[in-house]
């Protein structure tokens, strides 16, 4: 399984730290050329490698760590996302009317035709997400939700590998509503920093 993080700002770098901590290879990309990202990638760890967006999307699993509306640009990087898993770590707040009442990740999923989309790693502030998820007494919880049942298991396995305790919430508009904003209200689990004894 190969991994890429698209967006190398606060959340992208927080996730890169999580991969580096466990020596798992990950590509990072943004609109800037890889040379511009390379010093920061190297500073995080040797398993974090900056590439162009076009090369990054060759990975099997792509994590979106970009401003919400930029998902439409990133989706254009491939004609079809068949066979790919997309982990949507984006949030949008307040929720714009253009989403037609859809959970924001269901709106994102529409742009990534053919991909298996899982919402995850979106509910913590970046500084918390960057910290070691293994603390005395437990593993930091990340919430996963998806309309595609088969998609969640490999993402849960990745979350575990990174040291997090994944908690599956079910479909995007059911349990997933807890980690989506609605109008001007954050979902109840957003920013909740929780721990589980067992992964
Ligand atoms: N910050 C938080 O605490 C937090 C917490 C939970 C969720 N989130 C969500 O996570 C997402 C990222 O937030 P952030 O705080 O990390 O933002 P950020 O610090 O502004 O970083 C955004 C990154 O996306 C890149 N980017 C923008 N447009 C792009 C495009 N079209 N293609 C490729 N890369 C692009 C930017 O780099 P270039 O300018 O070089 O392209 C930058 O590296 C947002 O959706 C936010 O709602 C943030």
Compute the separation of the termini in Å.
21 Å
CATH architecture: 3-Layer(aba) Sandwich
Secondary-structure class: alpha/beta
For this structure, what is the CATH class? Alpha Beta
Domain Pyrroline-5-carboxylate reductase catalytic N-terminal: 3-91
GO molecular function: cupric reductase (NADH) activity; ferric-chelate reductase (NADPH) activity
InterPro entries: NAD(P)-bd_dom_sf, P5C_Rdtase_cat_N, STEAP_metalloreductase
Protein name: NADP oxidoreductase coenzyme
Describe this structure in words.
GO terms for molecular function: cupric reductase (NADH) activity; ferric-chelate reductase (NADPH) activity. This protein is of the alpha/beta class and 199 residues long. The chain has a single domain, classed as Rossmann fold (3-Layer(aba) Sandwich). The chain has seven helices and ten strands. It has a six-stranded parallel sheet with strand order 3-2-1-4-5-6, with helices on both faces. Strands 7, 8, 9 and 10 form a four-stranded mixed sheet that branches. The longest helix is centred in the last third of the chain and has 13 residues, at 149-161. NADP nicotinamide-adenine-dinucleotide phosphate (NAP) binds at residues 6-12, 30-32, 53, 65-68, 70, 73-74, 89-91, 122, 125-126. Residues 6-12, 30-32, 53, 65-68, 70, 73-74, 89-91, 122, 125-126 line the site of NADP nicotinamide-adenine-dinucleotide phosphate.
């Amino acid at each position: 399984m190969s991994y890429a993080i698209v967006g190398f700002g606060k959340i992208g770098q927080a996730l890169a730290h999580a991969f580096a901590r466990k020596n798992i290879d990950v590509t990072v990309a943004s609109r800037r050329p890889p040379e511009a990202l390379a010093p920061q990638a190297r500073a995080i760890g040797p398993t974090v490698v900056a590439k162009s967006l076009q090369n990054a999307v060759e990975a099997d699993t792509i994590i979106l760590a970009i401003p919400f509306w930029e998902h439409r640009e990133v989706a254009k990087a491939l004609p079809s996302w068949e066979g790919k898993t997309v982990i949507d770590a984006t949030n949008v707040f307040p929720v714009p009317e253009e989403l037609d009442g859809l959970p924001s990740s269901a709106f994102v999923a529409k742009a990534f035709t053919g991909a298996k989309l899982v919402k995850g790693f979106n509910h913590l502030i970046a500084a918390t997400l960057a910290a070691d998820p293994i603390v005395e007494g437990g593993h930091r919880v990340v919430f996963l939700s998806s309309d595609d049942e088969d998609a969640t298991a490999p993402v849960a396995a990745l979350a575990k590998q990174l040291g997090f305790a994944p908690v599956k919430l079910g479909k995007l508009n059911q349990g997933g509503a807890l980690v989506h904003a609605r109008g001007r209200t954050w979902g109840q689990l957003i920013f909740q920093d929780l721990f589980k004894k067992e992964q």
